[in-house]
Amino acid sequence: GLTSYSRYPRMMAAARLPLSEVIDRLVPLALQTAR
Which end of the chain has fewer CB within 10 Å, C or N? Predict the structure, then answer.
């Protein structure tokens, strides 16, 4: 999952990439792929 307690967001935080930025990047990619 993408809650603040999940593994993936914690790994991104360790890479200095906040969850909000991850979501900002993933949403457009998901929308683009869905078309």
Answer: C
